[in-house]
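Predict fold of TetR family transcriptional regulator; 199 aa.
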Amino acid sequence: MPKKVDHDQRRHEIIASVWRLIADEGLDAVTTRRIAEVTGYSNGLLRYYFPGKDSVITEAYRYVVEATNIRAALGTSERGLTGVRTLALELLPLDEVRHAEARVALAFWQQALNHADEAALFDASFSEWRDFFTARFTEALADGEAAPGTDPVATTGELLTLLMGAQITAACSQPEGNARSLVVMLDTFLDRLRPCDLR
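Predicted 3D structure, encoded as tokens:
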């Protein structure tokens, strides 16, 4: 009797290898031949799961977003600035894995500029993070952890811009993108939000 194939599991295994290929070798490495080499699957099987290069990049980005959210545990009860810091640290490229994820994100953002489906996925992931940060900043304001007058929506926009810039800086191997500098930058940003007597 033929072995039953778990297609979702196989797709996941392929992407688990491919996202590292993108991170290590760039978009030019995303060819059927190269993917076959790193996954051990035939070209024909790969085309069954991923009909083109765009679909591979999209799934790699989705994989990275899901990994980030799992690590950050978005459903936890961490309130206010503590919750903000938890997710922000997972989005910052502070170690080899998160640095590789930043490179995948950059590759995907390039695709999202000209493709509606990729743009929609980008919007969805950022909307989730935007909602999370806005809710945590709102809690910080209500709890007296953030200074009166703090605008949760505007502050979220500033933070997301900071985090995106940090990913670009680190992915391009600039000295400002080293882990220590990025953590100091995040903590300085959060400290500026606190009332003077809590800094």
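The chain has one domain: 7-198.
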